[in-house]
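Notebook entry, structure prediction.
Reason for the run: the old model in the group folder had no record of what sequence produced it. Starting over properly, with the input documented here first.
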Amino acid sequence: MVPFSILDLSPVIEGGTVAQSLENSRRLAQEAEAHGYKRFWLAEHHGMRGIASAATSLVIQHVAAGTETIRVGSGGIMLPNHSPLVIAEQFGTLAALFPGRIDLGLGRAPGTDMRTAQALRRNLDSAANNFPQDVIELMQLMGPPAPDQKVVAVPGANSNVPVWLLGSSHYSAHLAGMLGLPFAFASHFAPDMLLTALEIYRERFEPSQYLDRPHVMVGVMGAAADTDAEADYLFTSMQQSFVRLRRGTPGAFPPPVDDMDGFWSEQERIMVEHTLQYAVVGGPEKIERRIADFLALTKADELIVSIPVFDMEARVKSLRLFAGAQQALAKAA
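New structure, fully documented this time:
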């Protein structure tokens, strides 16, 4: 059975608060745990009024403290924004608090606009160029210290937190293969290089102390409901959000609308539908079929689902319906 996981951005809805968003993330993780999901990951984004997970390590701690067995981690930490030592200390602390339950997914993008990235006080060009070296340094800091090692992460050393590389292009596919790490592709918003990136990763994979064979996770946006029409309605929140982002006017996460025709232009519609071409939106039969087709296409080892639904009860119901689809697919296998 292909494990399912959840990717959450702690969405701040219109009329809502950050406190409510963080509590909703915790509740969603509890539901994910109860329904057999393997991981619950949170993403680092900065300067976005509709996302409350900027301090990702803190949100991971909040979620992990409210759950018992599900793995909790980052999807991901944007390493160019940080020194490897700081992340080693943060995730070493998390691993000490929640042994055997913490994942560290790493990305290379800043997770924000350039001005905000500069405010994070990092040299963007050098940080991005140093990404491979920073990944290696971070893993060394979380491993056993060498006898002559001058800098030791405390906590962090000997925590051996599992590291994933995340990507939306070929770059991280090459690096994950070279380092022998698991690879997660951001197909939920970057579909174009999905298949070639997976091919590169699998072809270039070198067995390592971390992994003996390639291991791929792929992402989808999702909204599930009792009917296809209801799910389509729920998904208009994400469609509006993408259009606003491309217009340069992002904001809090919007409520769904009955008809997108009055909101987007034809060019914007084409752009959004292309970007979200792998989205899984529909009633139980449709989502089961869409997931089966996507897993057959990618031959992925894991699937991670982002559920951008405005109403919390509808979001929880979507999560439960995706869990039902996983069970149905397992029975059919």
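Summary: The longest helix spans residues 312-332.
The old model has been moved to the deprecated folder.
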